[in-house]
Design brief:
257 residues, alpha/beta, TIM Barrel, 7 strands, 44% helix, binds zinc ion
């Protein structure tokens, strides 16, 4: 939401969104210092919740240095070291979106640091998986890191950007799977519904891509409409679009919707 206008908040409130959950992500450019991230974390935990509240929307956030900017391991270390002072803020749900972008050795090391941070502070985890040809390998690497840390409870982890060839692998670990919806590229509404129909809708959530690229904050309500056209009952639509994220995030007692 830090990249969106107040019109988007109005549209979300009007279409029945009950809360906003915003992961720390790439700003459209690489930040030049840890101080830049410090300011960003203030924005996510202080200013943005106030802006959302004006539209009656509770705002929650996840904190990290995202994989796209974690190639500089010295910067990543500095950023990870300032995160604990924000973990007590009332709208913070956990660590995310961490993960891999190009599956490099440095990204993997930074991912392990984040997982350790989450374990030490008993935080939930939101993970980004790479796009395109790196996805399968990246998802495998990520799952290996998470599974090999015995402190991590799989039920408190969500692996986002799953596709047809990675969804089963994720669900088999007991972790949650996420699908970020885009209007034209990557995971569209119809593709997401196909995945739900083929792989089950128990431990999967959908969320709207919402950034500087082409994206629509109402992607989830639009997908709900598409589900209705395909003959899904209202009950099942609500179970997936609302009930599932509620179940996952309510594992954090701070999440009250
Ligand atoms: Zn992502």
């Amino acid at each position: 939401m830090v990249s969106r206008t107040t019109d988007d908040y109005t549209a979300m409130a009007l279409s029945g969104c009950a809360a906003v959950c915003e992961p720390a992500f790439w700003a459209g450019f690489d930040r030049s210092s840890a101080q830049g991230f410090y300011d960003y974390f203030c924005q996510l935990t202080d200013y943005e919740p106030k802006r959302a509240a004006k539209f009656g929307l509770p705002h929650y956030s996840w904190l990290c240095i995202n994989p796209k900017e974690s190639e500089d391991s010295e910067l990543a270390r500095e950023v990870i070291d300032i995160i604990p002072e924000f973990l007590d803020r009332p709208n913070v749900l956990g660590i995310g979106e961490i993960g891999l972008n190009k599956n490099t050795r440095t990204e993997l090391k930074v991912l392990e640091w984040h997982v350790d941070l989450a374990a030490r502070h008993d935080q939930m985890i939101l993970v980004h998986t790479p796009h395109l040809e790196d996805k399968l390998k990246g998802t495998r690497l990520i799952l290996d890191v998470l599974k090999s840390d015995r402190r991590i409870d799989p039920a408190r982890v969500i692996i986002d950007h799953v596709e047809e060839h990675t969804v089963k692998m994720v669900l088999n670990t007991g972790m949650w799977a996420g699908m970020t919806l885009y209007p034209e590229s990557k995971c569209t509404s119809s593709r997401a519904i196909d995945i739900l129909e083929n792989y089950g809708a128990e431990q999967i959530w959908m969320n709207s891509a919402c950034d500087w690229g082409i994206s629509v904050p109402l992607a989830v309500p639009r997908t709900a409409l598409e589900m209705r056209k395909r003959g899904w009952s209202q009950e099942r639509i609500e179970a997936v679009t609302f009930g599932n994220p509620m179940r996952f995030m309510s594992q954090n007692p701070r999440f009250k919707v």
